C-alpha cells in the first residue's frame, strides 16, 4: 500500500469513528508529514485525493476541513414519480437542461427493452440535472418513434419526460425491475458532470410503462454522482 493511500485510509477511518466531525479542521500537511514521517508532497496528494472523493474541502489560507456528507440529497430510487418532481418537492434549487435528442443505431438490448422491432426508430434524449447550479445527474431516456411520433421534433424542448407522457395521455406509470451498477466517469461524463475521475457514478437502468395499457414508454439510463446523493431503495 502506498503512503498516500495509507493516509487516505487513516483519515477516512477517523471520520467513520467520530474522531473528526463535519467541518472540523484537519491537521495541516506539515503536521501529518511529521506525525507519519512522510514527505509533505505525499500528504498533499492524499489530501487532494480526499477532496476529489468528497470527504474534505479547503478554505483558502486556512487549511482543510471535513465535509458534511450527511447533507447529501436523499433520493428514492423509484420510477413512478419524475426526478424533477422529487427534487422540487424537497425544496431544492433544481434545474433541468436538455443537451441532446438524437436517433441511435439498432441496439438489441435497448430495442428489446422497448419491446420494439429492429426497423423501428429509437431516439435518446439526454438531460442534465442541476442542484444549486451544480450538475449532479445525467438522465438518458430511450423512446420509440412508433410510440412518440413527434419525438425528433420536440425532443430538445423536453425537460420532464413524465410531463411529456402526460401530454400524450399517459397518466399512471409503473417501473420495470431496475439494474444498479457503479462505474467511473468517462472523460465526456466528467466534463458534463463537472467531477473528477475518482467520483464514482451510480448507474440506474430501468424501464417505464403505462399502467393502463401496458405500453412501454421508455428505457432509461441514469448516472448519479455518488458524492451528491444518499439512496433509498423502496
TrEMBL record:
Residue ranges of domain HTH gntR-type in the record: 1-69
One Gene Ontology MF term: DNA-binding transcription factor activity
SUPFAM superfamilies: Chorismate lyase-like, Winged helix' DNA-binding domain
Classification via Pfam families: GntR, UTRA
Lineage: Bacteria, Bacillati, Bacillota, Clostridia, Eubacteriales
One GO BP annotation of this record: negative regulation of DNA-templated transcription
Keyword entries, A-Z: DNA-binding, Transcription, Transcription regulation
PANTHER family: MANNOSYL-D-GLYCERATE TRANSPORT/METABOLISM SYSTEM REPRESSOR MNGR-RELATED (PTHR44846), MANNOSYL-D-GLYCERATE TRANSPORT_METABOLISM SYSTEM REPRESSOR MNGR-RELATED (PTHR44846:SF1)
Protein name as annotated: GntR family transcriptional regulator
Family matches, as SMART domains: HTH_GNTR, UTRA
Amino acid at each position: 500500500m502506498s503512503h498516500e493511500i495509507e493516509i487516505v485510509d487513516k483519515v477516512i477511518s477517523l471520520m467513520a469513528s467520530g474522531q473528526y466531525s463535519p467541518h472540523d479542521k484537519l491537521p495541516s500537511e506539515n503536521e501529518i508529514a511529521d506525525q507519519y514521517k512522510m514527505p509533505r508532497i505525499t500528504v498533499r496528494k492524499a489530501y487532494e485525493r480526499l477532496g476529489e472523493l468528497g470527504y474534505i474541502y479547503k478554505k483558502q489560507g486556512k487549511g482543510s476541513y471535513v465535509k458534511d456528507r450527511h447533507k447529501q440529497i436523499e433520493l428514492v430510487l423509484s420510477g413512478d414519480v419524475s426526478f424533477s418532481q422529487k427534487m422540487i418537492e424537497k425544496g431544492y434549487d433544481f434545474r433541468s437542461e436538455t443537451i441532446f435528442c438524437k436517433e441511435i443505431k439498432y441496439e438489441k438490448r435497448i430495442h428489446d427493452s422497448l419491446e420494439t422491432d429492429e426497423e423501428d426508430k429509437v431516439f435518446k434524449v439526454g438531460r442534465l440535472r442541476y442542484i444549486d447550479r451544480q450538475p449532479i445527474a445525467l438522465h438518458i431516456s430511450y423512446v420509440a418513434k412508433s410510440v412518440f411520433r413527434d419525438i425528433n421534433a420536440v425532443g430538445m424542448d423536453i425537460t420532464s419526460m413524465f410531463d411529456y407522457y402526460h401530454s400524450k395521455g399517459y397518466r399512471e406509470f409503473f417501473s420495470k425491475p431496475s439494474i444498479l451498477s457503479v462505474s467511473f466517469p468517462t472523460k465526456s461524463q466528467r466534463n458534463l458532470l463537472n467531477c473528477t475521475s475518482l467520483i464514482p457514478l451510480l448507474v440506474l437502468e430501468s424501464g417505464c410503462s403505462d399502467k393502463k395499457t401496458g405500453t412501454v414508454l421508455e428505457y432509461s439510463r441514469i448516472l448519479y454522482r455518488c458524492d451528491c446523493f444518499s439512496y433509498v431503495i423502496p
